[in-house]
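Problem statement: downstream parser choked on a complex file, so we are re-checking the raw output for the coenzyme A run. The parser issue turned out to be on our end (a line-ending mismatch), but while we're here, posting the original submission so the record is complete.
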Amino acid sequence: MSIIRLEQITGSDAGLKAALTDAHLPIDDIEDGGRTFFKALSAEGQIVGFSGLERCDGDYLLRSVVVHPDRRGSGLGKAMVEGTVASLAPGGAVFLATTSAAPFFARIGFSEVQRDSVPAAVLATRQLSSICPSSATIMKLIKPPT
Ligand SMILES: CC(C)(COP(=O)(O)OP(=O)(O)OC[C@H]1O[C@@H](n2cnc3c(N)ncnc32)[C@H](O)[C@@H]1OP(=O)(O)O)[C@@H](O)C(=O)NCCC(=O)NCCS
């Protein structure tokens, strides 16, 4: 059983916005369509983090992954990403862009990919086309969580 429980929220959730702002992650587009966000609750019912998915034709962009600063380093981020990806129907590939957390995502089964191998719909997301710097590492989930 996972150490966290995910509950779907909207992009207008005040806690989501505050957590992303504190972590210097983009908020400009979180209320646009095609995005699904989750809050992660501990066994005690405390909100410990947030995550999101953005649909890109048949593929997905994993985004807005943040664990409360006081709760980092105890496996919550990994459980949250695995739960978020597990919510998807099989078929599409999962990509993400990160400037600072590539080693964390690599431990979960993501591998760096070159921009020219990334589907156009993923590159066209606001995260990749305008918000994230061009120096961001783009990663693709190669090994689905077991
Ligand atoms: C990145 C983040 C979500 C990780 O959450 P976390 O709860 O601390 O991560 P976990 O405890 O689940 O770590 C899982 C594994 O990744 C490793 N890890 C975590 N952060 C890491 C980092 N920055 N660099 C290298 N390894 C890291 C952990 O040591 C752990 O390894 P293990 O499985 O061998 O024990 C959290 O640090 C965070 O919210 N950062 C700010 C926001 C951010 O950068 N989000 C990602 C951008 S999209």
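For whoever reads this later: Residues 61 and 117 are 15 Å apart (CA to CA).
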